[in-house]
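Researcher: Here's my situation. A collaborator sent me these components and asked whether they could plausibly form a single complex. I don't have experimental data yet, so a predicted model of the whole assembly would be a useful starting point for our discussion.
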Amino acid sequence: MITLKYDGTFKGLLCSIFYAFGRRQDEFNIQHKNINQNSLWGQDITITTETHKAHRVLEGLKKTVGSGGVSILYRSFLSEEQGIENDILHALKSIYTSGPESIKDHTDPQILRLHKVVKMVNRERHRMEAFVRFRLTKDEVYFASIEPDFDVLPLIKKHFHSRYADQRWLIYDMKRDYGLYYDLNKVERMQMTFESNFDATKTSDHIFTLEEIAFQELWKEYFSSTNIASRKNTVLHVRHVPKRYWKYLSEKQAV
Amino acid sequence: MSFERIKEKLTILADAAKYDVSCSSSGSNRTNKNKGLGDSTGMGICHTYTEDGRCVSLLKILLTNHCIFDCAYCVTRKSNDIKRAAFKVQEVVDLTINFYRRNYIEGLFLSSGIFKNADYTMERLVRVAKKLRTEENFHGYIHLKSIPSASDELMAEAGLWADRLSVNIEIPSKKGLKLLAPDKNFDDFIKPMEKVKNEIIQYKEDRKLIKSTPKYAPAGQSTQMIVGATGESDFQVMKTANHFYRNYRMKRVYYSGYVPISTDNRLPQLGTAVPILRENRLYQTDWLMRFYGFNIDELLNKETPFLDLKVDPKLSWALRNPHYFPIDINKASKHELARIPGIGLKSVHKILQARRFRKLTMDHLKNIGVALNRARYFVLTANRSYADLGQNPSIIRAKILSNSTSKFRNQTTNQLSLFSS
């Protein structure tokens, strides 16, 4: 077993796949380079990420499995689940040995896992489209902080781009420390340096407008007025809005 | 704008609107143009859920809760002693835009009590929608209520700005309506519905010839019925629903378990439990009719006018029709697979894909996500085990019930006695 260490990017993964396909007789284990799990016997190879190679693999994949197939591989990669790289490699091997239809083989445990993980990633993407709460800052940027379970920012970019075309916005993944910023022309990936005392769960009037605080009040008021007390169903409520998301939801903040 | 005053109005007018259960924001196809605000091309989004577990997708409010009618089932009825309020057109526009900009909502669902007369009310609803579209360049979702007996001219305009229009018939039978809303006429509900249906057909025809034909209510029409306020059977309710799906091309019919809000002796008394389970079974039946190829008569008929509250309507049908089973997972058509209890449409899809690779066994079904505790009594698989097949339906039913923990389990006993009274 040879372990391929890659840099954790999708391009890096594609390059690892490129390498593995070049030596088909060998068995590989693809692993993020930050995972310190050296195999007792066996060999480690560090993969260098090269854009043109990654591009070649991607083009080849598009031809064999179509954009739908590529999306399954990409989305399962974004899950950051442990060992998902090897399931992706396995799926690609069976595609190349038994044809592109293999991606639909729900009886193969590793392919089934990919489909299950994609479902989880898609649910998280949909959640973020729902749970992003913009807050208007004094610099006239609508700012939202999120901590999604998976790295879904790349998947929600288009949605927010086509929806909020006339306001500047920034959606920031506090866990992965990067965000998407729209400046009225284009959306760009960016990294922020927050003040050390900045608390993303609070709406302080140093950073946010007074109007912002008033609208949060109205929203909270709406949220409680639209509830029907005699149908109270906390289990259902928490299933739809799990507690880990509450800290960035304006309607769930104490007044 | 004065936030305090708006807040007070919002409290009153959101509270009054909450009994309308429609929250759908999907099915439209309005794209963002000229760098405007909003887009309603995708699927609907539930931005949050209230503590009763219902989705919040739209800003759902009444323009006013002043009303000239006195419908017994309605909290806004004339004779009810409650605080009244009215939004100005501009206030609704500002709230919608500011909520939307913060990603709280997919758009607006505007309804209203009827003040002065139908047209006066409808005209104001239309004005809000028009303002949002033309002055604010807003492309989010707008759902307007069609006010019963509103004029054809206003309905013709409403659909140009709104994505969805709806009239709630509320009471599933003419008899019930006469009892609870004596000053309303069944035909008044039908009139705007008919007009909107015809406009939708007309605009679709026009678009075939002239591509630039504007959109008219692209997300179609819906309606709502209150369940458990009057004595209708499930058969009557679903027959009415079926009628509206077929003849008025409804996108959705909603079922709203009656929440007691009145001491009126024509209605269930305050404190009576909301029939949440019955509501759930009706929705399941609705889905079976629309997506699973079932005919209403198979699920409900003169012999079985009520749904079995303890088991889902598909299982209930299967238990009444044992001659359909067992169904061979590896051979059955899509249509047949969809009729097996415990197998949803997503599983059907996966089964169809997976069985091209190998014969499917019970384990495969389990991993795909089939609810085997129900399906096992009805299917043949590659590792066929006959142990569960061919049993007496009443035994199957008892076994399934003893092996499942329904979230409604402790409710069924009370609810049953409620309906038989």
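Model: Some features of this prediction you could bring to your collaborator: Residues 51-78 of chain A form the longest helix (28 residues). Chain A touches chain B through 55 residues (CB under 8 Å).
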